[in-house]
Amino acid sequence: MAFDGTWKVNRNENYDKFMEKMGINVIKRKLAAHDNLKLIITQEGNKFTIKESSALRTTEIIFELGVTFTYSLADGTELNGTWRLEGNRLIGNFKRVDNGNALNAVREIIGGELVQTYMYEGVEAKRIFKKE
Fold first, then answer.
1. What pLDDT does 115 receive?
2. pLDDT value at position 53?
3. CB-based burial, 36-50: b 16+ in 10 Å, e otherwise
4. pTM here?
5. CB 125 within 8 A of CB 131
6. 118 close to 125: Cβ distance less than 8 angstroms
7. 52/6 Cα distance (integer angstroms)
8. Which of 31, 14, 26 is nearest to 122 (CA)?
9. What is the dihedral of CA 109, 113, 118, 123, to 10 degrees?
10. Contacts of 99 (CB under 8 A, 6+ apart)
11. pLDDT computed for residue 74 by the predictor
């Protein structure tokens, strides 16, 4: 339940390069870099609810660990995949619907911050969140 709470993005690492590799145009990349993303995460057993709100959109994602689901990124890219819990880390393995390429993600609490690490086609990026 360490992920439960409200998290606001504090900083990004290599996020622009990651988005560029994903094929996101420069205007959307600039907007996304300053989106003021806020996550409200709740966990009930194996079920997670994540409410995302940003300057770009507001959405709610509900998933169960180990169960495949479809998710759309803010730019409209659709992904299919699963999240699983390994120790204190949420591990996401997704494939893009449009080209089948893998997008992997890890969410973990490090030093009281929520660190989201993304890997796509050899490019790694991080978004670091502080708890509100």
1. 98
2. 95
3. ebbbebebeeeebeb
4. 0.93
5. no
6. yes
7. 10
8. 14
9. -120
10. none
11. 85
Q: Angle at the Cα of 77 (from 84 to 106), degrees rounded to 5?
A: 25
* Alpha carbons within 13 A on the beta-carbon side of 14: 13
DSSP codes, 60-124: EEEEETT--EEEE-TTS-EEEEEEEEETTEEEEEEEETTT--EEEEEEEEETTEEEEEEEETTEE
**Positions of the chain with pLDDT under 50:** none
Phi-psi category of residue 8: left, alpha or beta, with phi > 0 → left and psi -120 to 50 → alpha: beta
Q: What's the pLDDT score for residue 26?
A: 92
Find, among 1, 7, 14, the residue nearest to 129 by Cα.
7
Nearest to 82 by CA among 100, 97, 98, 95: 95
